[in-house]
Amino acid sequence: MSFASATGILLILYSLTTIFLVYRGAKSTKDIKDFALGKGFSPWVVGLSLAASITSAATFIINPGFVAVYGWSAFVAMSVVLPLGLFISLIILSKSFRKYGTSVKALTIAQWIGNRYNSRSFTYMMAVVSLLLITFIVLICVGLTKVLASALQVGELPVLIVLVVFVFGYTMFGGANSMVYTNTIQAVLMAIVAIILLTSGLENFTDGIEGFWSKLDGIDPLLTQTFNPKSPLFRDWFEVVFCNFVVGIAIVCQPHIITKSLMLKSEQDINRYLFIAIAVEILFFAVLFVGFYARLQFPDLIVDQKAMKLDGILSTYVVKNFSIGVGILVVLGLISAGLSTLEGIIQSLSTTISNDIIAPMLRWNPGDKSVAITNKIVIVILGVISIAFSYQQLLYPNLSVGIIAQNGVYAYFSAAFVPVLFGVFLKEPSKNAAFSAAIVSIIVHFSVYYGGLTSYTSGDVRNPAVAAAIAIIAALITGLAFQFSFKQTKTSL
Q: In the chain, how long is the greatest CA-to-CA distance?
């Protein structure tokens, strides 16, 4: 049996399992609240779901390519510093967000912010900003299409259409009650694949760690350096450490991440939930180390007399090193990494559009059946948009879909960070402070990125992490200034 045929059979079984879990969850989904938050789950299930949601196709497919090309600097930035910021923020924010999330009674980040600051306009503004997350949907669709088309040996357009129809379709009916279980299965598969990948290159350590680094140093001394001045993203301390740490702290404010704590049965479960999520996530981020294995195997980054593309390095490594059986399992793990995040974004974004944009405009209550029906229509529209944009990226691969997606996602959580931070930790947060901070972050982010206001964002490849970090700091300063000014004014009255 060929690799393509075996992959196809296993994908059918994978799809049938997913459909069963969706059917099970859909029976408990009665309204938009059930779709957004579900009925309450154990910390083990929600923790695995969070780990799967945080990790995208970029972590398993694209980012190891950065490590293969740019070396230790890329690994430190994306597998050490960024996760460190993420874990710290997750621990600090989750407990308080869970507390306020239940009292504020919100289904989305946008609604939570609006209710916390008693401002419908704030809800609407953040809901509109959340549309930037469409760029991440496109990134995942493109990545998954490439993996599936290569594995099945078929055209990319049919794969893209089937993929979008299938994923958007089952997310439409299942919502959170289904997603938490599909994410759990995906997390288990991803963990198995992560272990397979990380142990696949152990022969490179026959001469110890020093021998391993010596081999890399012999290929290119920059591969073993903490900073790589010849790279477009990992040139110095500011890019590698500062920007990625700041981004890691703020990245938690994505809707499919921070709202996970609201799915727990009780507040007492949150510590176990965080422990499980972080432990599994450490394993997932470690997958980037496989990029070193790939570079040792392909020192010139050439295979079959063709230069390897950055986002195709890991896939090539898998094809060259694993048997059909193991290779198929790895492919399923890579697919799971993409699907887990894709489901979460579709679910959260559609809920935001339906609940926070359309429903208030038409003066519907959240419990109205019209909101749930509208949500399904929104998912269909998002699916059509995703196919159109993803196909454009497949036709014109010279466009950096990864950078575009990062830019959109980073702009979103840069805007959400201060409103969430102040809303969680301040007893009387100023609406003016939080709103101004969100506006400033958006203006600064896109000005720095598209305006080329720094040397890091003026080349052929612009670093969205730099734009986001500067925007977050600017937003924080703005928020604190307005909060202090608000208190002074209030005191003097």
A: 80
- The burial of 44, by beta-carbon neighbours within 10 Å (0-12 exposed, 13-18 middle, 19 or more buried), is given as middle
Nearest-angstrom CA–CA distance, 422 and 427 = 9
> SS3 of 52, please?
helix
Of the candidates 332, 53, 62, the residue with the CA atom closest to the CA atom of residue 183: 53
Residue pLDDT, tens place only, 253-295: 987 788 788 778 777 888 999 999 999 999 999 999 999 999 9
- Give, as one character, the DSSP assignment of residue 100: H
d(CA 76, CA 55): 17
The model's pTM is 0.89
| 148-177 per-residue burial string, b: 16 or more CB within 10 A, e: under 16 | bbbbbeeebeebbeebbeebbbbbbbbbbb
d(CA 145, CA 157): 8
Tell me the pLDDT tens digit for each residue of 96-127. Answer: 777 766 555 677 889 889 988 999 999 999 99
pLDDT at 310 over 90: no
As a CATH number, domain 3-398 is 1.20.1730.10
Other Cβ atoms less than 10 A from the Cβ of 18: the count is 21
Closest CA to 279 of 459, 91, 127: 91
Say what the pLDDT of residue 492 is.
37
Q: What is the pLDDT of residue 367?
A: 63
DSSP letter at 264 equals B
Which phi and psi (to 5°) does residue 305 adopt?
65, 20
